[in-house]
Structure formats: C-alpha cells, structure tokens
UniProtKB/TrEMBL annotation:
Entry keywords, A to Z: DNA-binding
Signal peptide start and end residues: none
Binding partners and assembly: Homotetramer.
Gene that encodes the chain: ssb_3
Region of interest called Disordered, as start-end residue ranges on this chain: 106-125
Molecular function per GO: single-stranded DNA binding
GO biological process: DNA replication
One Gene Ontology term, aspect cellular component: nucleoid
Protein name per its UniProtKB record: Single-stranded DNA-binding protein
Statement: the UniProt record of this protein carries the keyword DNA-binding: yes
Pfam families assigned to the protein according to its UniProt record, in alphabetical order: SSB (PF00436)
PANTHER family recorded: SINGLE-STRANDED DNA-BINDING PROTEIN
Amino acid sequence: MASFNRVILLGNLTADPELRYTAGKKAVVDVGIAVNERYKKDDEVVEEVSFIDVTFFGRTAEIVNEFLSKGAPALIEGRFRQERWEKDGHKRSRIKVIADRLTLVGPRPQPEEEEETVAAGAAAF
C-alpha cells in the first residue's frame, strides 16, 4: 500500500521559541502555530483557528529561535508524526508536524547592532 505524508502550513507562532539541545548536541525547537480558516456559512463569515505543534531540528531550529517570535508568520513544510504515551493508565496520543523546511514570511528582521549604528549615525547629523 502506498502512502504520502506531507503537509504545508502558513500560520503564526503562538509563543516565543525556546531553543534546546539533545544529548547529541542537536538543536531542537518546539513551537505552536495558529492556522486560520475562513468560510461562509448561512451568509455569515466564520473563522476557525487550529493550533498545531511543530518541531524543528538542526540549523532550522536555530534560525527559528533567532528570527521568529510570538505572532510571527511562517511557512512550514514537513510531515506528520504521531506520538503515543500512557499517563495514569490511559493511552494518549497526538499528531505533530516535524518540519523539514521553513520559509520566513513578512518583514525582514533588523539586527540590533545595525539599528544602533543607524541610530547613532542619525544622531550625529
């Protein structure tokens, strides 16, 4: 049986990313993104928001940590992975996205040093 596991999402981060490292010193960032869907129902526009957990690894995780913050838009391509565990005798599971690619969307962030240099230069004139 053939299968295909790809997902492309465009949404906004729900919190600031927190970079951590595995025991093997591989960078990891877990973030949530909010994806909005608007549709018309009985002449009324309805908006639904889906919250999706996404995990980034390696250099992509470091880029997410450096350039994105809560509310920032991001285009993510990846695959679904189901996690399973047992808690208090109950089996639990959730589906999350393992990101393979990231495209930064929106205004380009300005490095703080560059902003300070420009501000200092402007003050001198």
